[in-house]
Amino acid sequence: MCTFIQTTEELNQLCQRLAEHPFVTVDTEFIREKTYWPQLCLIQIASVDEAVCVDPLAKDMNLQALFDLMRNDSVVKVFHAARQDIEIFYHLSGKTPVSVFDTQLAAMVCGFGESVSYQNLVQKLLGRELDKSMRFTDWSRRPLTEKQISYALNDVTHLRDVYQKITGILEQTGRADWVSDDTALLMNPQTYENDSSLAWKRLKITSTKPFYLALCQELAAYREEMAKKQNRPRKHIMRDEVLLEIAGSAPESKEEMAKLRGLPQGFVNSRMGKDILKLIAEVKARDESAYPVLPKPYELPRSARAVSKMLRLLLMIKAAENDVAEKLIVSQDDLDILAGEKDPDLDVLKGWRYQIFGKAALEMKAGKTGLRYNPEKHRIDLLSF
Asked: Residue 373 belongs to a domain with what CATH number?
């Protein structure tokens, strides 16, 4: 059976076969060092009885049958660390896969630690060592060798066994529903929408002045749109430090802009330089009430700092007891809010998170429980009062 598909007809036949299976494992190889959008170079997909590489770069290749398979609700699509793979399918087809299972996410509720790698998960669950000698391969180059194809298929063949092992653990522990909220987020198209107006929030902002924030917002949005249109990385359009320097100086003329450090040669007289001067003028002409304001981070009251540390220790205990990664239960920010607020509306106070930690945290806050070091067993015990 062919393990490297390079025609649409072969792909259509493959997808018909795969649609008969309860699950398929999926992985992609891509590059994006020189582009804004990831360039899909290879797709690996496997069922229980076959594993195939699909060449998206082959002449006249139409991936529609694969996109349809990704939207087939009766077939579970198994990924490891699914976000980037799903982003690619969303960008190419305009739709996210459905019935997704992420083994990295599942591993976090099964005691394998935070963001466990595929290599480590294969070793821990299957006792197999993966060959990683070709992880820096340029998958955009053709032809691919048999060795490269065989290497790439390892990413989905072992994943079949990982999936079956980890779903078995989830069923035994009654945790199959624990990953549903996070999986829903992976399948939500909004997760992959690159809203240019929000691009400024990725910057390392150095001031909270509204006018400066407004310039950062507009400059970042302008850069984002340019990067999308030209399919180039943001830093190739304008580096962050240049953007922030322009926002901080707010030049009103070419002469003022020319005095800024770090600008590329010819930038001032370029189309971009002219656009930016217009943009600065437009922002200055706005009513100040339209300028963005950074939301203030939650400030933990001094009186609650000890409570936060106590809850942090409780979290460590409960996470260890239940073999769940701490960050999957609650973030540090939410832990502070839980410590400092009377009736916070937090995910940790709902569902399974409440059962394994939230309930105990509220009891501790209410003075109903406490912690004591057990010197005989060298551990910290939870006591009821």
From this structure: 1.10.150.80
